[in-house]
Each structure stands twice: as C-alpha cells, then as structure tokens.
C-alpha cells in the first residue's frame, strides 16, 4: 500500500517490473533497426512498449521486426528518411494515421555522417 509520502513506497511499487514498465508507451525510434537504436528498441519492447522503428533500409527494418518482435510489447517497421524536412513530415503523417492518440516517446537516434570531421572510418594498415 502506498502512502502519500513519496519517499515511502511499498516493495511492490519498487519492483523492477513496476519501475521499468512502459506498456502505456507508444514510441518511435529513428535508426531503430541497428546499433544503439536497436538496443533502445529492444529495451522498450522487452518492457511492454509499442515501438515503431524508422530507417531508410526497409529490409533491415523488416528483419529487425522478425527477429525482435517477441514481446511483451510490439515492434513495427516504418521505412522513411529523417534527413530532410519532407521525410520527417511524411513519417509524422504516417504515425498520425496509425496512432490517433499520438506517441509518448520519440528517440531521435538516426544519424548520418556527411563530412570528414564526423565520419567514422577504419584505417587499414598495410
């Protein structure tokens, strides 16, 4: 039983399943099919969230859904390109059509290196 004092919580309220329950969350993770975005996606789905993953490579997204849509939340591919305003607007409209109550979480994870100062590269020694 919870008291009105926020510093006093029942053991049940402090269980990991209560603390990390996101079953009430609908999320969008850009770049959610690989790397850090995939790890974020897995954590959300594993704790009950409905997650849309976006990215430019539809095949990668579909494979991610096949592999990681194991609940208790759900995982959905939404191909798109967030590198332009038009691409962002298109994805926003698609989400709006699918989720009439909107989303509760947006993880802006997608990134693209465009210049020599931000590119990652592997140097091969010969």
From TrEMBL:
Coiled coil, from the record: none
Cell cycle in keyword set: no
Domain of life from the UniProt record: Eukaryota
Molecular function terms from GO: oxidoreductase activity
Name of one Pfam family that matches: adh_short
InterPro entries given in the database record: NAD(P)-bd_dom_sf, SDR_fam, Sec_Metab_Biosynth_SDR
UniProt keyword list: NADP, Oxidoreductase
Entry similarity comment: Belongs to the short-chain dehydrogenases/reductases (SDR) family.
Protein name: NAD(P)-binding protein
Species per Swiss-Prot/TrEMBL record: Friedmanniomyces endolithicus
């Amino acid at each position: 039983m919870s008291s009105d004092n926020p510093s006093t919580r029942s053991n049940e309220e402090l269980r990991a399943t209560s603390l990390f329950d996101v079953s009430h969350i609908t999320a969008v993770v850009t770049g959610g099919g690989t790397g850090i975005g995939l790890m974020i996606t897995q954590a959300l789905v594993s704790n009950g969230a409905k997650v849309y993953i976006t990215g430019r490579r539809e095949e990668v997204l579909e494979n991610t859904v096949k592999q990681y849509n194991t609940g208790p939340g759900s995982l959905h591919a939404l191909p798109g390109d967030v590198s332009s305003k038009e691409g962002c607007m298109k994805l926003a409209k698609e989400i709006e059509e699918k989720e009439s109550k909107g989303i509760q979480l947006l993880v802006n994870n997608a990134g693209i290196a465009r210049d020599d100062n931000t590119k990652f590269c592997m140097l091969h020694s010969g």
